[in-house]
Structure formats: structure tokens, C-alpha cells
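Why does residue order matter? Because the sequence determines the fold. Keep that principle in mind as you read this record.
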Amino acid sequence: MKRIFHNGKELRAGWRLLLFCILAFLIGWALRAALINLPLQGYLGLNPVVIIVFDAGMLLVALAATFIMARMEHRSFAVYGIPGIRELLGPKFWIGAIWGFAMTSAVILLIFLGGGYRVRGLNLTGAAMLKYAALWSLANLLIGAGEEILFRGYFLYTLADGVGFWGAAILEAIGFGALHYFTKPYERWEDWVAVTLITIFITLALRRTGSLAFPIGMHAAFDFAFIYVFSGRNGGEFAVGRLLDVQFPGPNWLTGGMLGPEASWFMFLVAILAILLLHFGYREAKWPSLSSG
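Structure:
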């Protein structure tokens, strides 16, 4: 009976993963019950204020659940790939941000060349433009940090302990794509495939750089560019306070339709190319070190 729960050193990976998920659910449920009463009725639509509140909550949930499991396992956050503040704001973060912005820029350029992207002018100017630039920067930083630490920190480390890194990476990628597909409005198969490919890129970046600093920077810049800078739709909505007044004429395969440019077929091409460039540019595997304590 003991062998079902224990591998001779600690709880088996599956049980640890289940415990982490239960902790995250319970902490998240309690926090959401508190946040739901906040006076956010005036912040309608795809609004950075709402995203800041709820993704700060996601980050708190991820850190709290990871902290409890780390104490139980006598491991540091670094073992799970979670960077400290100094590393988070260091070179790996900014290199990841460059990758994220470059990937979105390439997709938008291809859509533009296909006749599916038109800029009619600025959506906002002056102080309002600066205000929303700051709000969306913070919102997307919290999205990147919250999602990466929750899904690619303890969760991926422990899943890899059970099924190996590449098995965990594939399951994570497909599962993260499915999470988007089944929880967001207007979803189509294109977004599932796109998110799966992007997640493969992110998990490969974690493996080759040894830290979530690169994936957090990439994720934050990727979303910031698509949602704010290039002003595409997300979940059927344009962002409140977006930079540009744009149109996306053309078929869904070209523009992404209601899902935004992330679901364009050009995203598949750019993501696959990015994976290959990352693979050949960063050759050494640095994470996870499953023997670390």
C-alpha cells in the first residue's frame, strides 16, 4: 500500500500534483469570493483594470500553493524555475520580451501583406494613451507571471518528475490549448493549435534557459503587443484603451477573426519557426534538475 503513495524518497509525483491542484483550487476559490465583491462594474469589456485585479489574484494563488508545496518538499522556488525579483527583471526577461514582440510583429506583418490589417489612426492620444500604456503593461506582466508560475512552475516540474520532461511538455501544451478552447468565447480549433504551439515554445525556453524569467517576458510582451500595440481582438473584444484604431478585413484563417491575430494561420508558421530558432540558438538543457532538493 505504501508503494502506491510513496516512491521511497517522497510522495509520488501524481499525488503531489493532485495536492497542488487542490491547494490552488481552494486558495483560488477563497480569493475569488473576496474579489468578486469589488466595485468593478464600471470597468466593462476587455479592461486592464479588471485583468490587473484578477491576474494579480492568479499570481498570488500560484505563489501561495507553490510555497506550501515547497515547504513540504524542502525545495526552493528556483528548483521549480521560479525566478527571484532580481532575475525576473534581468536579461532573460528582456530577451524573452524581445522574442515575444518579434513573434507578434511577424504575424501582424504577414496579415498586413495578405490585406488583413489596416490602421486608421490612433485610438487615444496624450495622457489617456500614456495611462493605458502603463495599465496594459502591468496587466500583461501579471498575465505572464501568473500563468507561467501557475502552469509552468511547480505543476510542470512535478509532472515531468512523473512522466519525463517531454511527456510533460506535450501534455501541458495540449492541455493549455484545451483550457483556452473550452473557457474562452468564440473559440475555434485554430486557437487551440496556436496556443499549443506557443506553449511548446515556452516550455522549451524554460528548459533551455533554466528559468521562467524568459517565458514570463515573452508571454507579457506577446500579449501586450497583440492586445495593446497592434490592437487586435481577444475573445471577441477589442481592448479598452488600445493604442490603434484598426480593422482586420478578410477571412478568419488570415486575421483570426473574433479570436484575434493569435488564431491566424500565420501564427502556426511563426510559432514553428520560433521553436526551431530557439532550439538551435539554445542547445543546452538546464531545467528541470529533478534531483535538486
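DSSP finds twelve helices and two strands in the chain.
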